[in-house]
Structure formats: structure tokens, C-alpha cells
Amino acid sequence: MNAPSPDWHLRAKAATFDGRCVIGGRRIDSTEVFDCISPLNGGVLTQVARGKAAEINAAVKAARAAFEDRRWAGQPPAARKKVLLAFAANILAHRDELALLETLDMGKPIKYSLSVDVPATARVIGWYAESIDKVYGEIAPTADNALALIEREPMGVIGLIVPWNYPMIMAAWKLGPALATGNSVVLKPSEKSPLTALRLAELALQAGLPEGVFNVVPGYGGEAGEALALHMDVDAISFTGSTRVGRRMFDYAARSNLKRVYNELGGKSANLVFADCDDLERAAVTAAGCLFFNQGESCNAPSRLLVEASIADDFIARVVAEAPKYAPGDPLRADTVMGALVDVGQMHNVLGYIRAGHDEGARCLAGGRQVLAETGGCFVEPTIFDRCTNQMKVAREEIFGPVLTIMRFDDENAAVAIANDTPYGLQAGVWSGNLSRARRVARRLRAGTVHVNQYDEDDITVPFGGYKQSGNGRDKSLHALEKYTELKTTWIRI
Question: Under 8 Å CB-to-CB from 115, ≥6 apart: which residues?
């Protein structure tokens, strides 16, 4: 017999929060705080530390001390694995608590916080835990009188700056490889969704991670984030966020100690549907579902739908028919599939793009309005614009909301030209029953990942990142280990 579903509204009323920094293994008060506001109803959840240079300095100092005395870096890989596996298990053991924090703080439906975000976070930490004692060094093919060892060593103190749309998962993508390779870290979560990051640090400590290895300083990007990126004792910055802020990370590195900078930035991904697609219904369901999932607040969302002209009317009708299935609802209800945008500012930003779509002459086929305003929450209908061009603002700029733009194409060359006519290059999709065409088009698309006859299927074993202004470096997979290690050669004369 299945256990009854929790009453998430009762749990929300009983929830307690701790917004203080985690520095050197302890909760630390800061001199200033800010209100953490829930997008579900506009209410204040708690007050959170407004970290600035003083808190960042303390966190970096704690991380540096932990790295230099090798309390973590000096442990054998198998020992680090044991602690990180315990950390992953701790995440799963606190599944309901973490899911509720994520939903209240960020606005996503509780069903997805439970079924996607928490288990994915634990899987990432566990995967990197398991991988680290299976990564080998090399011996160079030198002359007989020399032995050249090529090894990867932890880099030192890593600054991690993560966005608000997948707070736990994005943190795990960076924490997993950074901690597994022996680094110490300072995590700066978004001020819009800081609560799960702070709790993750406590769960890591409970699992046996030494004090000072994992520090969390919440705060605003222009204060805590800038102080972290400018810090002279931080060896690398791993940043996920907007292209605009990503540019600043390189500037901060140049103005400080030339620290390594790894950016995973925005996207405006094209989803190409050809007339020879074998299953137009599945393609339509996927096109809508992958765009409207997480309220459209995904950097890899297929927000530009390109459809071959000969099937456009039929296919677009199928996509429009999907939109009502994603009507926004109470994120604490178990059956809700689209929740609230992260805050009032983001809601108004999305509504501004919708107005621009109307003004530029795009045809709105569905949605386009704020809904559930009486709740005090930040809800916007799934919105579909047809008859768009790549010159329109809604088709060129990353909206980060539930807004789909549709363009038609006449042939393969035109489809590729439209898809590549963007400053971004994160992901793309190709739907075709002709394998030769699918492979040919995938090769021509300038994107870090190209999905064929699916979209957004995913595994920790494959890298995530983009071309052009979608960033540099890769999260996930064994390739991520390269970002958090130095490559050292030891040359021994025999």
C-alpha cells in the first residue's frame, strides 16, 4: 500500500530556515541581511546573509587553510570517495526537506523538485565520488634514460557561482568534480535561490567532509560574486549564468591574479523539424514539453522552433494544442507541472519580451499573460509566437521564461543558416527520419550538444556546455575534472 502524499502546504508552514553563511564548518552571522522572498506568494521566507568582501575573505581564508594543510586534498581518492558517497546518501535522506526548500525558494513544482532535482543532485555527487579513484595518470614516451610522469593535481581554492534556475543541480555539477579532485571551494549561490546551497554544506559536513573544504556565502552578484571573482587567493572561477555577467568574470580575472575562468552561459537553442520526421506528434509534444519545463527557465530550452514550411501549419497546431497542459498552478500541489517564475523582476522581464513580440509583428497563438495574480505569486502562461524572424528581439535574446518562437524554413540550407544565426551555441535539436540528413545537419550546427529525434535526454556521462557566447569549458562527464585540476609533469632522470 502506497504511503499518502505529504501535505506540502502544512510542511511549508512548519518549515524553518537558516540563512547564515557556512564558513569554516560553522554557521556565521553577517553584518547585513536581505529578505528571501518566495515567488509562490510574494511572502518573506527568511532573512539571508548579504555576504560582501568581509565574508568572502573569511571563506577564502578557511578554504585556503583547509587546502594547504591537506586535510582533504591529502586524503587518498578512495577516502574522498567514501565521504562523497555519504554526502550523496545524505542528500537522498533529506529529499523532502531539500525539495520543499527548492520549491519555496525558486518556484518550481514540488513534483519535479522531488523527482528530478534532488535525485539528480545526489547522482552527480555519487558519480564523481565513484569516478575519482578510477582516473589514471600517464607516462610519456620518452627516451630510456628518463621517466616523465603526467599527473593531475587539485588546483587549490575554487570559487563556484551558480544560477537560480536549478540551484542544487548546478551546484552539484561543480561541487562533484571540484571536491572529488581534492580542492576546497567557496560557493556563491544566487541571491534569488540560496537556501538549498546552505543546507547542502551542512549535509556535507555531517557526511564527514572536513571543515573549511566547502564554504557557502550567499549575497548579490555585484557584491559577494564580484569579491569572489576578484580575490587574489582564488585559483579558478566556475560560473554559470548570463553571458553579460560571464564577460565580467574574464575582466575580474584579468584585474586580479589571472585565475582560470570557466563559463557556462546562455542559450537560444534551435529545434529543427523536417518534413521527413517519422513521428510529428512526439516531436510536437517534446518541443512544447522541453520549452515549458521549469517554467522555461532553462539555458538549453529549445526556444526557437524551426519547422519545414510544407508541414508547418499541421505541426504548429500540434504544438499549440500542448500549451494548455502547462497552465501554471500552485507549485505545492502534486499535480502541478508549471510553477512560478523565480521573482517579480523575472516575471516583468518575461512580460516585457511578450510585449516586444506583439510590437514586432509576431503572431501570438497561445498565452501571453500573467495569471494567478491574486496569489501574489509570479505566474505567466505558456506563450507561443508564430511568424517570427531572427531579427526580432523575442527570437534573438534569451528570455528565460515560457515563451516559444516559431520560424519556417524551405530547405536544409535555410534551416541551418537560421539556426546558426545567433550569438549562442549551447544546444540544438534535429528531427528527421533520414539518418544521413540528421547526421549532416548535426555536423553543421554550431552547438555544444545536438539532439536527434529527441530533446534534452541527458546523462552525467556526457559533457554539457556550448560554443560561441554560450561559454567555455564543460560541466558533467570526466571532462569536467580538467577544469579543477592542474596538469603536472614530473621529469625524472634515470
Answer: none
> Which residues pair with residue 188 across a beta bridge?
161
Say whether 73 sits in a helix, a strand or coil: coil
The predicted-structure confidence for 357-403, as pLDDT tens digits, reads as follows: 999 999 999 999 999 999 999 999 999 999 999 999 999 999 999 99
What 3-state DSSP class applies to 194?
coil
Q: What is the pLDDT of residue 2?
A: 62
pTM: 0.97
Helices (H), 153-279: 167-180, 195-206, 226-230, 243-255
Q: Which residues pair with 34 in a beta bridge?
A: 48
36: number of Cβ within 10 Å = 20
Q: Rounded to whole angstroms, how far apart are CA atoms 371 and 367?
A: 10
Q: How confident is residue 190, by pLDDT bands cut at 50, 70 and 90?
A: very high
Q: Given a cut of 90, is residue 322 above it in pLDDT?
A: yes
Summarised one tens digit per residue, pLDDT across range 208-234 is 999 999 999 999 999 999 999 999 999
Residues 6+ apart with CB under 8 A from 126: 84, 85, 88
Residue 5's pLDDT band, with cuts at 50, 70 and 90, is: confident
> What does the alpha-carbon distance between residue 40 and residue 376 come to, in Å, rounded to a whole number?
7
The residues near 423 (Cβ < 8 Å, ≥ 6 apart) are 243, 268, 468, 469
Question: Rounded to an integer, what distance in angstroms lies between the CA atom of residue 480 and that of residue 60?
Answer: 22
Write down the catalytic residue from 277, 299, 378, 388: 299
Q: Which three cell numbers stand for residue 104?
A: 519555496
264 counts as catalytic: yes
pLDDT at res. 389: 96
d(CA 73, CA 255): 28
Lookup result for grid cell 502547462? 326
Task: Find the catalytic residue in 264, 297, 308, 322.
Answer: 264
Cross-strand bridge partners of residue 490: 149
Q: Let me know how many helices (H) and strands (E) the chain has, helices first.
A: 16, 23
Q: Which of 35, 343, 49 is nearest to 218 (CA)?
A: 49
Residues 6+ apart with CB under 8 A from 469: 243, 265, 266, 423, 424, 425
Query: Within 23-74, where are the H helices?
Result: 53-68
Q: Residue 182 has what pLDDT?
A: 98
pLDDT at 3 over 70: no
Query: Would you say residue 494 has pLDDT above 70?
Result: yes
Residue 285: exposed, middle, or buried by beta-carbon count in 10 A (0-12, 13-18, 19+)?
middle
- 110, 154, 170, 236, 485 from 482: Cα distances, Å: 34, 10, 17, 12, 5
Higher-pLDDT residue of 473, 176: 176
